[in-house]
Design goal:
Layout lengths: L15 H22 L17 H11 L4 H8 E2 L2 E2 L1 H72 L5 H21 L4 E5 L2 E3 L16 E4 L5 E2 L1 E5 L5 E2 L2 E6 L6 E2 L4 E2 L8 E6 L3 E2 L4 E3 L5 E3 L7 E9 L6 E8 L3
Helix pairs in contact: 3-4, 4-5
Length: 325
């Protein structure tokens, strides 16, 4: 081998890009060391001034403040002033559950009302059934009572149509009754110019009688009576009885006969006409008034008045007299 002299190799020259990159790297390291040794000052940003709301926005805000649960809806639908879809889903779920609960409650209430209506209808139906049954019983009873008259009418009026025979018998009986009553006087009563109606029905001894007329007396406290004959028959010996629970010392009744006091300290004054009164002739007792003296301190007086004559039935009247203050 040849002895060759070893000479050191010359270092390769760096390219211009390597040199620039080295400078950038040294500068970056220097800057990093400076930042480590000093505190980084935060950059202050200018505060943003809130924009003034428009008139429409202000109106919507004021109206929303008055809506119930507006804050809840706002949290559901908006986050950082942006619409949130999840809130809408939650609201939809709540709305569906609320609607279902309302439906169940309304259905329960409707079922309860319908049950009450059905119960009321059943009660009404049962009541009507009872009334219908009672009506049928009454009908059957009256049919049994009417059967003899129908048989008599069918046998008597053979020339008349079948459906008119009972009516003919009824008309004949009414005519007979009217002829029978035509011979009996019918008496009416007037007190201080006011017509008083008699009590209806068949009265019995001991029945409770209540006033069917009220008369306001004047300051003279007098009761003037007129008896009217309302029938074609002549009324003879018309008799008037005046019953009242008042002491005899408080009454002036000239021309009247004081009878024996009755039960419960009820006194009876009676007057009888000797003359006869034909049709529409009146018995005037104005000259024989009954006067209640001021010694009687009560404001009210209840009197029973009884009218009758020969061949007439008895007519009863109950009158409440009111005295002036």
């Amino acid at each position: 081998m040849r002895n060759q002299q070893l000479t050191p190799r010359e270092p390769k020259r760096k390219s211009i890009f390597s040199h620039r990159f080295s400078r950038i790297e040294h500068g970056f390291l220097r800057s990093t060391n400076q930042l480590r040794g000093s505190k980084v000052q935060p950059v202050e940003r200018e505060k943003e001034t809130p924009e003034e709301p428009t008139l429409n926005q202000q109106v919507i805000h004021d109206v929303a403040e008055k809506v119930p649960f507006h804050k809840t809806f706002k949290l559901l639908f908006f986050r950082d002033k942006k619409f949130v879809k999840e809130g809408f889903l939650v609201f939809l779920l709540i709305a569906v559950l609320s609607a279902f609960a309302g439906y169940k409650w309304e259905k329960s209430r409707a079922d309860s009302e319908m049950a009450g209506v059905r119960q009321g209808n059943e009660k009404m139906v049962n009541q009507l059934k009872g009334e219908l049954s009672a009506t049928k019983q009454d009908r059957d009873k009256y049919q049994i009572l009417l059967a003899p008259y129908e048989a008599y009418a069918l046998a008597k009026y053979t020339n008349a149509p079948i459906d008119q025979r009972l009516e003919l018998l009824t008309a004949a009986m009414l005519s007979f009754t009217n002829q029978f009553n035509a011979d009996k006087p019918i008496l009416g009563l007037q007190i201080n110019g006011q017509t008083i109606n008699p009590l209806a029905g068949n009265l019995k001894k001991g029945d409770d009688l209540y006033p069917n007329a009220t008369i306001q007396l004047s300051t003279n406290r007098e009761i003037s009576i007129v008896v009217v004959n309302d029938s074609e028959a002549t009324a003879e010996h018309i008799t008037v009885d005046f019953f009242a629970g008042i002491d005899v010392t408080n009454v002036v009744a000239n021309g009247w006969l004081l009878e024996v006091p009755g039960a419960n300290n009820v006194n009876n004054w009676r007057i009888t006409a000797e003359a006869s009164f034909g049709q529409f002739e009146n018995l005037y007792l104005g000259q024989y008034p009954i006067k209640i003296l001021p010694n009687y301190k009560k404001q009210f007086l209840t009197a029973h008045i009884r009218l009758h004559s020969d061949r007439s039935k008895t007519f009863m009247f109950v009158v409440l007299f009111v005295f002036p203050n």
